[in-house]
Amino acid sequence: xxxxxxxxxxxxxxxxxxxxxxxxxxxxxxxxxxxxxxxxxxxxxxxxxxxxxxxxxxxxxxxxxxxxxxxxxxxxxxxxxxxxxxxxxxxxxxxxxxxxxxxxxxxxxxxxxxxxxxxxxxxxxxxxxxxxxxxxxxxxxxxxxxxxxxxxxxxxxxxxxxxxxxxxxxxxxxxxxxxxxxxxxxxxxxxxxxxxxxxxxxxxxxxxxxxxxxxxxxxxxxxxxxxxxxxxxxxxxxxxxxxxxxxxxxxxxxxxxxxxxxxxxxxxxxxxxxxxxxxxxxxxxxx
Amino acid sequence: xxxxxxxxxxxxxxxxxxxxxxxxxxxxxxxxxxxxxxxxxxxxxxxxxxxxxxxxxxxxxxxxxxxxxxxxxxxxxxxxxxxxxxxxxxxxxxxxxxxxxxxxxxxxxxxxxxxxxxxxxxxxxxxxxxxxxxxxxxxxxxxxxxxxxxxxxxxxxxxxxxxxxxxxxxxxxxxxxxxxxxxxxxxxxxxxxxxxxxxxxxxxxxxxxxxxxxxxxxxxxxxxxxxxxxxxxxxxxxxxxxxxxxxxxxxxxxxxxxxxxxxxxxxxxxxxxxxxxxxxxxxxxxxxxxxxxxxxxxxxxxxxxxxxxxxxxxxxxxxxxxxxxxxxxxxxxxxxxxxxxxxxxxxxxxxxxxxxxxxxxxxxxxxxxxxxxxxxxxxxxxxxxxxxxxxxxxxxxxxxxxxxxxxx
Amino acid sequence: xxxxxxxxxxxxxxxxxxxxxxxxxxxxxxxxxxxxxxxxxxxxxxxxxxxxxxxxxxxxxxxxxxxxxxxxxxxxxxxxxxxxxxxxxxxxxxxxxxxxxxxxxxxxxxxxxxxxxxxxxxxxxxxxxxxxxxxxxxxxxxxxxxxxxxxxxxxxxxxxxxxxxxxxxxxxxxxxxxxxxxxxxxxxxxxxxxxxxxxxxxxxxxxxxxxxxxxxxxxxxxxxxxxxxxxxxxxxxxxxxxxxxxxxxxxxxxxxxxxxxxxxxxxxxxxxxxxxxxxxxxxxxxxxxxxxxxxxxxxxxxxxxxxxxxxxxxxxxxxxxxxxxxxxxxxxxxxxxxxxxxxxxxxxxxxxxxxxxxxxxxxxxxxxxxxxxxxxxxxxxxxxxxxxxxxxxxxxxxxxxxxxxxxxxxxxxxxxxxxxxxxxxxxxxxxxxxxxxxxxxxxxxxxxxxxxxxxxxxxxxxxxxxxxxxxxxxxxxxxxxxxxxxxxxxxxxxxxxxxxxxxxxxxxxxxxxxxxxxxxxxxxxxxxxxxxxxxxxxxxxxxxxxxxxxxxxxxxxxxxxxxxxxxxxxxxxxxxxxxxxxxxxxxxxxxxxxxxxxxxxxxxxxxxxxxx
Lengths: 287, 408, 612
Hints:
The complex is a heterotrimer.
Chain A: H1 3-32, H2 39-57, H3 60-81, H4 91-113, E1 129-131, E2 137-139, H5 140-162, H6 164-174, H7 176-181, H8 186-212, H9 219-233, H10 238-258, H11 263-277
Antiparallel strand pairs in A: 1-2
Helix pairs in contact in A: 1-5, 1-8, 1-9, 1-10, 2-3, 2-4, 2-8, 2-9, 3-8, 5-6, 9-10, 9-11, 10-11
Chain B: H1 2-24, E1 38-44, H2 51-67, E2 71-72, E3 75-83, H3 88-101, E4 106-109, H4 113-126, E5 130-132, E6 149-151, H5 157-169, E7 174-180, H6 183-198, E8 202-209, H7 217-226, E9 230-234, H8 237-249, E10 257-261, H9 269-272, E11 280-283, H10 292-305, H11 311-329, H12 337-345, E12 348-351, E13 354-358, E14 364-374, E15 377-388
Helix pairs in contact in B: 2-11, 3-4, 5-6, 11-12
Chain C: H1 7-26, H2 29-55, H3 63-76, H4 85-107, H5 112-132, E1 142-143, E2 149-152, E3 155-159, H6 163-186, H7 188-198, H8 200-206, H9 210-236, E4 238-239, H10 246-259, H11 265-282, H12 284-291, H13 297-309, H14 311-325, H15 329-338, E5 364-373, E6 376-386, E7 391-395, H16 402-410, E8 417-422, E9 425-426, H17 432-437, E10 440-442, H18 455-464, H19 479-492, H20 509-522, E11 527-531, H21 539-552, E12 557-561, H22 565-571, E13 574-579, E14 582-587, H23 589-594, H24 596-608
Parallel strand pairs in C: 7-12, 7-13, 10-11, 11-12
Antiparallel strand pairs in C: 1-4, 2-3, 5-6, 5-8, 8-9, 13-14
Helix pairs in contact in C: 1-6, 2-6, 2-9, 2-10, 2-11, 3-4, 3-9, 4-9, 6-7, 7-8, 7-9, 10-11, 10-15, 11-14, 11-15, 12-13, 13-14, 18-19, 18-20, 19-20, 21-22
């Protein structure tokens, strides 16, 4: 296979994974108006949780089935303990409080799991891969992760467009008062949305753990790139997050080949360019 | 009512006292009297990515001192630990806190090269005995070397030089380099190029990835298209683990040999599993090294910390050993710098890593070993290069080679 | 509007200043270094407060300028000699300022969260520039071997290598930076920045080019941060790429929030508190000493060790406690107990004999005007003429496109097609502030005054809009003229003198609507576009405002949307009926009342009954 094609493939796969992480962030920000800097910590906790759960279950997908409800529950607790105090506050205080949560989660990670890197095994039935060039194999697990991300994306779009909870979420996105008018307790909605966001971040962390390996600080780059994706796609838009994530993934993969010296700036340059052309992101309303 | 209000007032006073104490403490510090414990400042990472390294170094140093009955050259050792977070912007201030605030007698640090650069700056100005137990930035023992700064770990290019030589010996003719594009990675690759090119090898392409990025797929695809005989890579920690896994998953492991400095596999031997099988590295330490010091050190360390020591622990051990030599020569008085530094500069001892001595610029001259990762362990294959030294003119004997900051 | 600091704040600041002045006499080398670093951070964070707290621009990339300032000292310092401080400081300020101008011209186009992210992006690009390339030592950072010296000819005035001199220099720099910003935000220029924070569309509609003001604020803040960064590099002569990174930017935001955004002194207190808390939590010996005040020695030592070991977690809990207990930061905490700030008494000014000239107002003419949103045509080919010195009513059912029509006229929306002429000048498609500057003022359907400001301050900003130079720093220029315009406007709009110095948020709904009209009068606009000025008013207030509109038509042209049919038919000289974006009828009230099409489409029962 041609090198450029392979890079496109890598870019799409990477993009799908960051979509999973960014989708939770865009929901939390779009619906609740909360800037959640600790989003990357949920990704990290997902990855470390996968490490521990897989030691018991022996299979990453069993860990996923166990881990996602746990992450949701954890999200509910964090919302109840901290986040719910922030709804009437301005963004700056949300930034401060969720930054404080990062400090706490990082330290907790160090105390619980230590500072050495760990790996999470790829299940036996997904070992190996497809041969795509003389020397290069594309691992089955990466393909499985990509498929999983696409499935989640489709499921999310279905939920948002076609179901009652989706309608409520869309209403909340455009107008908080409208949710109240529909007779829904917005506090409950927010708790659900925050927990769902946490669960999505953790899901990304879990499925990525066999790919990424697990080590301290794993959530930080995910946080930054997720914010970039949310902004490119337009705040609150799942479709935007999907397109934005693919764009970032492909730009990053191609950038590494063609502009290796500046590849770390490419995603930022892309974001700045999008915002200058469309100040509300690709699928967002102009701010 | 009355009681309650008195209680709250007293409570408030107490709180105010705590606040005032907190405000005053960074500034007010008692002078250290003679004959007091020897205060050793540890500027090391205890949080963040490098926390494991900081802990290993500290453990080994603590073990050494405990084995000496808590004293070196008759002085009780008191550690003053500061978490440097591997953050360069804070580094000069934290060093100042140890040197001028805590008034430590000896400074030991650190892991991150940028932090070490900042630390060395202050250490040179203050003239305090300083030992570097890990950071490998070449310049610290090249242009910026100083009579009071000693390194017990390695210079970044040293493992590269050894690996390049070993690859030539193994009959490899063509290679691609793939490493993080920051100073440590570039210096490591420069060392590799030096010996690999000298031995007649050909470097097809030098690939880099911005630090600390871990999306290796793009580089791996390019390696596959370039079809070299081997790849030389500098990655470390969690990134190295992911790299080996991606490398194996991409199917490259069977067709292109993976080589690197020992940091590629250290600390992640077990975690790498099958993906790490067959990765060859060069380092100044290997677990199974057959010498008395190493055997004893491994047994003692494992007994104390329920974990076998890694190269960072060895570096911590040698740091304390070197300090011990210097202190003994100075009779435990760090003010006698001439005696202390002379003894340290001329020190020769058997470390768990084998024979250890220092170059003119006070960087280790030591053996590098060729290792292969097998069954979760770095297996000793032989000596990759003996007495590897970092090329340098060294400290010229007068003042430090470059102008120090002048304090009026 | 930002008032002068209260007495209690001045006392606190002076006490801190006295402590700092005395510090070199009892503190050691490290104490001086630590304090100098905190003060430099103080300069950095107040410059950020100019953006966040004053202008309302939350920058997540402010460390870019701090880091550039630091690197500027590296660039200008010879390898083994001192740079001249008289060059190094202007160089740092210029470098940071120029980059801020270039970056700012792009980033201030965005708003809110997007602004946060795009500033982060530029900050990270700056970081990458120094981290991934070799322009200044790369990843490992770079040394400045000799600290700057201030000299003229061979005369050395100040050497930064002298710790004490450097310390006092930083202290003076912080004090002057604070005074400078306090002065700046209280100038006409600064008042506009504060207005932008609270309500940018309103400021734009008053005739202020908000883009230019925001850019100016961004550049000033960037230049100050560059100055602070240069001082930072001079502390130890070491610079690293991380100085430009997002962590440093984030840390600065923490300090601003912790101290209290928008108060200028608050962030400085935040920087001091944050630095001391972090310093203390990291040190087991300091923690042990503090804990031993409340428990026995052994327990204190044990606890101190544990906390210091997990200091970042302790810092996290401290920050959470701080944000929950003091939502407005330290400054908010202090001011809560200090009570409402005293505001300067209004100046007495001699009323001019005849300040309101009866003058010819402006004519507005619209031709074939359309505005579409995607497929939906909200205004569809409307042509109508509004002659001067008349009251023109626009009526129509909900969704008829009335508000869109006004938004297009005022420049808030661009027309899809057609032309708008004010007198003989084409204003269609121009920016709101340009339209406003030609004499067109507007009010909004929802009350849109600057709530944290007093009625008088609201009008003063409006009066200032007559001469809205972005670089207007004198409080004296045009002041009499403006004060007279404010007095006259307040009086004309019927705001009682004792209510004029109350915050707009404390005024009744009716009073706020009157205030909007007062602002329009004060702004000197000759054509007023009013979107439902009578909405939510009682009969008595309605009567008063209707009378006011009639009176204003002596020297203004008034175009208003209204749903109160009784009032509009009584007040208007002409009526324009819009239905589904199209012009249905235009004429005198009597013609409209008798127009069959209008009755069927809109007036219905009300029209048939023929009520006046």
